[in-house]
Amino acid sequence: MHLSDKKATLSFSDGSAPIDFPVYQGTVGPDVIDIRKLYGQTGMFTYDPGFMATAACESAITFIDGDKGQLLYRGYPIDQLATNCDFMDVSYLILNGDLPNAAQKTEFDSLVTHHTMVHEQLHFFLRGFRRDAHPMAVLTGLVGAMAAFYHDSTDITNPRHREVSAIRLIAKMPTLVAMAYKFSQGQPSIYPQNNLSYTGNFVRMMFANPCEDYQVNEVVERALDRIFILHADHEQNASTSTVRLCGSSGTNPFAAIAAGVACLWGPAHGGANEACLQMLEHLQANGGVEKVGEFMQQVKDKTSGVRLMGFGHRVYKNYDPRAKLMQQTCKEVLAALGLEKDPLFKLAMELERIALEDPYFVERKLYPNVDFYSGIVQRAIGIPTSLFTAIFALARTVGWIAQWNEMLSDPDYKIGRPRQLYTGSAVRDVAKRR
Ligand code: ACO
């Protein structure tokens, strides 16, 4: 970051002297006011619940321009990455800062491929869960438990340990998600197969069984690979900030990523794709396209508590660029699987059409987000709704681990410790009780 010529001056209405704060410029995006000395100089904190205007860190990984609807990983636009690269290219880029050349790609693919198997005893750990447990509950447990299985990569001060744990997490996440799925189905886990791509291997671990040969469908593989690319990172969102905050205490990477998985589970974040598909299925079961108008009235009525899931975003105040790519993939997958007439897709298109014209959505700048179409794609592929957020967690792991690593390498890194505006009782005495 660069120090700007500009300074920010804070003045007070009570006649106290104004104070200057340095302003820093990034490569693109808003400047930031460095208020680190505010408390020392004034005895005051800033107040910003929900981090509406607070940059909590410096980062060189991902940039979003919410007004333009632009998303860049390491400077590259998401649409160019989604159409020219595979998830391993993008993972390498996010971790290392640049796209791999051919030799680097071969080496990275091989490194990840050769870490996909998990410690056999993790299967016993998995068996302790109830069969009907939510996959996100299982995944939070399995990722956290990795710290107990891979002690040799938990020294966060050792760059080699950090590298090994990053590869382990990226490589083993598909295996863990597929294990959780197979367990819920009462089926045996399918072990990874090294001649397949990262995504092809995941498809096989999800849908093969030990009794038959299995051919990975290329359209399905490509669609999932795109889902992984689109979800790989998204700057300082809730789960990434959780990973950073959790990791800032110096905890091991598996514990920090497990915290990210837990945060992602919520319906306002990663759980939105599951909630969106449930909304579409509910609407389809209760009148379908005919009832869209009535449903939209409910959405706009603040007392109903109903939101149009898959719409709106804290940062995008324009079309989420990932939603456009997802809509394209959705069409491709439905056509390839002979599901062009899928009623949920029709319903989603109709909801989108109405919302984009409705003043309620237009005035509030509410557009479809990535989750609006990703649920339809995953459902068409055969992924159960309850597993959608786990797929998101799988894809986001590379972003989480890159952001965690970036934080630990930052000379300004400190334990995260927000302040508060206290509005509880002032000091008081306990009355004599006996
Ligand atoms: N349906 C109806 N109204 C909405 C929606 C929606 N999906 N989203 C926002 N609004 C309205 C709010 O009621 C509010 O109206 P008001 O100004 O009249 O009070 C206004 O738009 C602003 O909304 P906020 O909730 O203040 O915006 P915020 O930035 O806090 O929320 C969020 C963003 C949580 C994503 C919200 O849009 C939402 O709940 N969307 C549905 C869930 C969803 O799709 N989440 C996925 C996010 S993307 C991701 O995690 C991959």
Automatic annotation (TrEMBL):
<dbReference type="Pfam" id="PF00285">
    <property type="entry name" value="Citrate_synt"/>
</dbReference>
<dbReference type="InterPro" id="IPR016143">
    <property type="entry name" value="Citrate_synth-like_sm_a-sub"/>
</dbReference>
<dbReference type="InterPro" id="IPR010953">
    <property type="entry name" value="Citrate_synthase_typ-I"/>
</dbReference>
<comment type="similarity">
    <text>Belongs to the citrate synthase family.</text>
</comment>
<comment type="pathway">
    <text>Carbohydrate metabolism; tricarboxylic acid cycle; isocitrate from oxaloacetate: step 1/2.</text>
</comment>
<dbReference type="InterPro" id="IPR024176">
    <property type="entry name" value="Citrate_synthase_bac-typ"/>
</dbReference>
<dbReference type="InterPro" id="IPR036969">
    <property type="entry name" value="Citrate_synthase_sf"/>
</dbReference>
<keyword id="KW-0816">Tricarboxylic acid cycle</keyword>
<dbReference type="GO" id="GO:0036440">
    <property type="term" value="F:citrate synthase activity"/>
</dbReference>
<dbReference type="InterPro" id="IPR019810">
    <property type="entry name" value="Citrate_synthase_AS"/>
</dbReference>
<feature type="active site">
    <location>
        <position position="371"/>
    </location>
</feature>
<dbReference type="InterPro" id="IPR016142">
    <property type="entry name" value="Citrate_synth-like_lrg_a-sub"/>
</dbReference>
<feature type="active site">
    <location>
        <position position="313"/>
    </location>
</feature>
<keyword id="KW-0808">Transferase</keyword>
<dbReference type="GO" id="GO:0005737">
    <property type="term" value="C:cytoplasm"/>
</dbReference>
<protein>
    <recommendedName>
        <fullName>Citrate synthase</fullName>
    </recommendedName>
</protein>
<dbReference type="InterPro" id="IPR002020">
    <property type="entry name" value="Citrate_synthase"/>
</dbReference>
<dbReference type="GO" id="GO:0006099">
    <property type="term" value="P:tricarboxylic acid cycle"/>
</dbReference>
